[in-house]
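Lab notebook, bench 4. The sequencing result for the construct came back, and we need a structural model before the next group meeting so we can plan mutations. Quick request posted to the team channel:

Model the 3D structure of this chain.
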Amino acid sequence: MAIVEVSGLRKAYGGRTVVDGVSFEVEEGEIFGILGPNGAGKTTTVECVEGLRAPDAGRVRVAGLDPAADHDRVTRLLGAQLQESELQPKLTVREALELYASFYPHPADWRPLAERLGLTAQLTTRFAKLSGGQKQRLFIALALIGGPRVVVLDELTTGLDPRARRDTWSLIEEIRDSGVTVLLVTHFMEEAQRLCDRIAVIDKGRVAALDSPAGLIGRSAAATVISFTPSHPLDDRELAALPEAASVESHGDRVVINGTDATVNAVITLLARHRITARQLRVTEATLDDAFLDLTGTAPATESATESATESAAEPAAPATAAPATDTTARKTTPAAAQERV
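Done. Here's the predicted structure in token form:
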């Protein structure tokens, strides 16, 4: 059953279309990924889901509710960690958890939540003193403290070291296992391939593909790459005739063939027939990076440029009118000021 429905979503800034007819559904209990080049419209799309931006056209529903018209009710169902998140530097972890719990009529108990996310030892630590990984765990806790059915995580692991990133991946899996649906925006291919049940690839404001990671990889022009250095030269015509070979390249003495499992078997047969030894034989499967490149024509980014910063310059996001746990961008406020905003 779909808990998030997006149909024909459109959004433009200053005459420039950023989201152009995006449609997808997120099933309850899954980790649904949104991938795309920088500036593809990913953040604008999820901000419309969160009710932080009003779409120009199209339909968005969260558990059957309109995030714009039913914003207060949606904020009780949906928690979010936005691309750029901050808290008041002197606020302690305990104070942040208690503050955000006060925004909800029936919040989750923050104590076991802090323990589950490995924050118990940092309860008296001020936000400014937390490591990058600890800050991200705190933002996850704040997104979950209202007991949401859906949580949106936008570029959650950007800037983290490899160990902290993998620890965060485990936390995301635990969140899903607890029954919370996860909408994950990321530019890390390894992250999406490991975590996501399904992925929507957004390019130039449109959904270029929607499938499981394995399904997207299967669409790659070269599902398998075979590379080796033959002990004797091979006939180019025989190499070109290999079944399901998308391309055959020579790099000095080394042969690189893009194909499928059928191509691998044919290469082995060809080598055996000519009694040729394959030195440094390597057979590697295509990855989500390969599929992404085929779909978008763009290499995956190594670091995320802040797409939302460009879009925000054109039009500010609508303020969160209910629970600030859905808007972690505007958190450079004192607890008192935050409560006044609610």
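The first strand starts at residue 2 and ends at 13.
Will bring this to the meeting.
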